[in-house]
C-alpha cells in the first residue's frame, strides 16, 4: 500500500484574533441597516438613540481594525486612545439608559451645545495667535460675544445635569460609580492615560517595538544610560537621553 502523502504546507491557520476579525465584520455587515440615522431631525429628536447606534458602530469598527490581517500586532498602542473613547461611551450610555428619555435627551443636547461653544472659542483663539488670516467659524465675533456664548452653554448644561440627579456637570467617573463600573473606569483610564498623556515609561517601552527598525531606541547595558540611534544615520550618530 502506498503511504498517504503528507499534506502540502500551506498558509497557517488563522489565529483566534484573526477569527474574531471575521466575526466582527459579519456582525457589522448584518447590523449596517440598523445602525443608520435616517435624517438630521433624528439627532435632535432622539440624540440618545443616535449616540447608541454610533457607539455600537464605533465599537465594531475598532474591533475590525484591531483584528485586521493588515494591522501589525505591534502597533496596538496606536489604538489605545480609541479604546478609552469606547469605554467612556459604554459607561455614559449605560448611565443615561436608566434616566427618563426627556431628561437624558436634554442633557445630551446641552452637552452638544457646550462642546460646540467651547470648540469655537478655542479654535478662534488658536488661529488668532497662529494664523490670523485663516477663515474660521466664529472669527467675526468679539471676545466678549464668544465668552458670553460659552458661559450660556455651560450654564444650560449645569441645569440639564440636575435632571440626571447631579448638582453640577457629572464626570465619567461619577457615572461609572453610579452604574457599578468604577473598576472598569479606573483600569481603562490608567491604561490609556499612559499613552495619551506624556509618560516617559511609555516612551521607553518602545525599546521593544519591532516596528521601529529605522528609528530604534536602544539600551546599552555597559554605559548605565540609554541612547537613541537612527538607522538612517552613520553608525556613530546617537543622541544621549540619560546619564
For the biggest sheet, the summary is: 3 strands, antiparallel
Task: Flag low-confidence runs.
Answer: 210-243
The strand line-up of the biggest sheet is 1-2-3
> Strand-and-helix sequence, N→C?
HHHHHHHHHEEE
Tell me, rounded to a whole number, the average pLDDT: 77
Query: What's the total helix number?
Result: 9
Shape designation: globular
Question: What distance separates the N and C termini?
Answer: 72 Å
- Total number of β-strand segments? 3
Radius of gyration, in angstroms, nearest whole number: 25 Å
| β-sheet strand percentage | 5-15%
Question: In oligomeric terms, what are we looking at?
Answer: single chain
Question: How would you classify the helix and strand content by structural class?
Answer: mainly alpha
Helix content: 55-70%
Characterize the structure shown.
The chain has helices at 16-31, 40-45, 47-66, 80-96, 101-130, 143-162, 172-178, 182-196, 200-204, and strands at residues 215-220, 225-230, 239-240. Among the domains are: 100-163; 198-243, no CATH class. Helix 3 (47-66) runs antiparallel to helix 4, helix 4 (80-96) crosses helix 7 and helix 4 (80-96) runs antiparallel to helix 8. By secondary structure, the chain is mainly alpha-helical. Helices cover 56% and strands 6% of the residues. The N and C termini lie far apart (72 Å). The protein has a three-stranded antiparallel β-sheet with strand order 1-2-3, with no helix packed on it. Strand 2 (225-230) and strand 3 (239-240) form a beta hairpin. The relative contact order is 0.08. The chain contains nine helices and three strands; from the N terminus they run αααααααααβββ.
Amino acid at each position: 500500500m502506498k503511504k498517504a502523502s503528507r499534506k502540502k504546507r500551506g498558509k497557517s491557520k488563522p489565529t483566534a484574533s484573526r477569527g474574531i476579525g471575521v466575526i466582527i465584520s459579519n456582525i457589522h455587515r448584518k447590523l449596517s441597516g440598523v445602525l443608520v440615522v435616517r435624517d438630521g431631525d433624528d439627532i435632535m429628536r432622539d440624540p440618545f438613540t443616535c449616540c447608541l447606534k454610533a457607539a455600537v458602530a464605533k465599537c465594531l469598527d475598532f474591533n475590525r481594525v484591531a483584528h485586521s490581517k493588515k494591522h501589525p500586532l505591534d502597533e496596538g498602542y496606536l489604538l489605545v486612545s480609541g479604546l478609552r473613547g469606547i469605554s467612556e461611551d459604554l459607561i455614559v450610555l449605560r448611565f443615561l439608559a436608566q434616566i427618563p428619555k426627556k431628561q437624558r435627551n436634554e442633557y445630551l443636547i446641552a452637552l452638544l451645545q457646550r462642546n460646540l461653544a467651547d470648540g469655537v472659542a478655542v479654535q478662534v483663539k488658536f488661529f488668532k495667535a497662529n494664523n490670523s488670516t485663516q477663515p474660521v467659524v466664529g472669527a467675526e465675533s468679539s471676545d466678549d460675544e464668544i465668552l458670553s456664548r460659552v458661559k450660556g452653554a455651560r450654564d444650560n448644561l449645569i441645569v440639564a445635569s440636575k435632571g440626571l440627579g447631579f448638582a453640577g456637570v457629572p464626570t465619567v467617573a461619577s457615572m461609572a460609580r453610579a452604574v457599578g463600573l468604577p473598576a472598569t473606569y479606573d483600569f481603562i483610564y490608567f491604561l490609556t492615560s499612559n499613552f495619551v498623556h506624556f509618560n516617559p515609561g511609555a516612551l521607553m517601552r518602545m525599546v521593544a517595538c519591532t516596528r521601529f527598525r529605522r528609528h530604534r531606541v536602544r539600551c546599552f547595558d555597559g554605559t548605565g544610560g540609554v541612547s537613541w540611534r537612527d538607522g538612517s544615520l552613520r553608525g556613530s550618530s546617537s543622541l544621549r537621553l540619560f546619564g
